[in-house]
Amino acid sequence: GGGGAGFRTTDQSPIGHLHISVDNSYTAYINGAETGSGSDWSSPDTHDFSSPCHHPLAIGFHGVDAGGPAAGLVSVEWCGSVVTSQHNWRCTARQPADGWSTADFQMDDR
User: By the 8 A CB rule, do 31 and 103 touch?
Assistant: First the structure.
């Protein structure tokens, strides 16, 4: 499925930068590996990661809301592209299935 808006730059470095802010706290994952966590939604965090440019990139986060409206904003710079979170990113209020933060995961649409 689609996932966010994509923009290209000329930088083809496999070093990526995940910018994230989640109300109220989060743990972020890139390709199934924990990349960072935070709990101050009022100030975005940046986490660096490395992933080969010719492989798919899976971006995920587990957010925890402490009440009221919940939100998460993500921007990833990697291999000459910028991807931002959009309304078409998938989420669930249930416990995610094993492997949910990997590029091979197929979300059940039921």
Answer: yes
